[in-house]
Amino acid sequence: MIPKQPSTLSLCVENEKVTACLAGIHSREYTNVLKNVKDILHPEELDYFSGLKYERRKLSYLLGRYAAKVAASDYLNDKKLTKIEIFSGLFNQPVVRHLSFDTPDVTISHCDDIAVAIAFSPCKIMGLDIEYIAEEKLSVFETQLTESEKHMTSKEFDTVAAGAVCIWTIKEALSKAIKCGFTVPFKILELKKITPVNDSAYLSEFKNFKQYKSISVIFYPYILSIVLPCKMMVNTTTSSMLSYFNQLVY
Questions:
Q1: Taking the CB of residue 41, how many other CB atoms lie within 10 A of it?
Q2: CA–CA gap between residue 190 and residue 52 (Å, rounded)
Q3: Can you tell me whether residue 193 is helix, strand or coil?
Q4: Start and end of every 4'-phosphopantetheinyl transferase domain (predicted)?
Q5: Pick from 63, 81, 168, 217: CA 20 to 30 A from residue 1's CA?
């Protein structure tokens, strides 16, 4: 049995309704996906996958492609995953190729045992990132925080590690949304404000990119952040997102 169906995010921009499709997969499903790889990967993807030598890279590639293709499949309303190709663009960003004229943009993120992806209209701009909350990596994440952001981690979060990782995911999600990756200093992506919505969700604003906002959800030991334009209103509750990812993880 191949993994879970995607969760659909309901979004609206002013009076226009938009749909973004969010999907994830846990590494425990890797064996199932691998058994069905010929029913999942496009021939071009399968050729690339077959040439990979290292198991860790094969796992990362296949889980990431699966999540992206399931999300794109839901967006396109085409359940034939082999008809959907995800290839790398000029900046190594994932690009969807499909017979439809309305192909979505996708963003993919990997973290230890999980791969997640979101498919959305190319007329909109979104990005996402997921990370594992690891105390032992705190010093690495803290090097990318401004003094103001360090204050946020101690004020708004249960632990400094959770705060540092959350801010990292927000910045990385923004870098994917604007397709710059890590080619710019992290300080340019600095947060202006982060506000708790409840015990497991946060809303954030940016100092230099005021047209964007971020929604972050914590499902321990992971944090997922989605960056989107400020005008886009998310109708799906953070509790629904948490429920989906808790089922995915546990």
A1: 25
A2: 37
A3: strand
A4: 126-206
A5: 217
The DSSP string of 16-72 is: EEEEEEEEEEEGGGHHHHHHTGGGTS-HHHHHHHHT---HHHHHHHHHHHHHHHHHH
DSSP state of 186: G
Cβ partners under 8 Å of residue 196, min gap 6? 156, 202
> pLDDT 10s per residue in the chain (250 long)?
555 566 777 777 777 778 899 999 999 999 999 999 999 999 999 999 999 999 999 999 999 999 999 999 999 999 999 999 999 998 889 999 999 989 999 999 999 899 999 999 998 899 999 999 988 888 888 999 999 999 999 999 999 999 999 999 999 999 999 998 878 888 999 999 999 999 899 999 999 999 999 999 999 999 999 999 999 988 888 888 888 888 888 7
Report pTM.
0.94
Pairing mode, if any, of strands 201-206 and 105-111? unpaired
Q: Which CATH class is domain 126-233?
A: alpha beta
| Equal fold, 1-124 vs 126-233 | yes
Which of the four CATH numbers 3.40.710.10, 3.90.470.20, 3.40.50.720, 3.30.590.10 does domain 1-124 have? 3.90.470.20
- How many other C-beta atoms are found inside a 10 Å radius of the C-beta of residue 236? 16
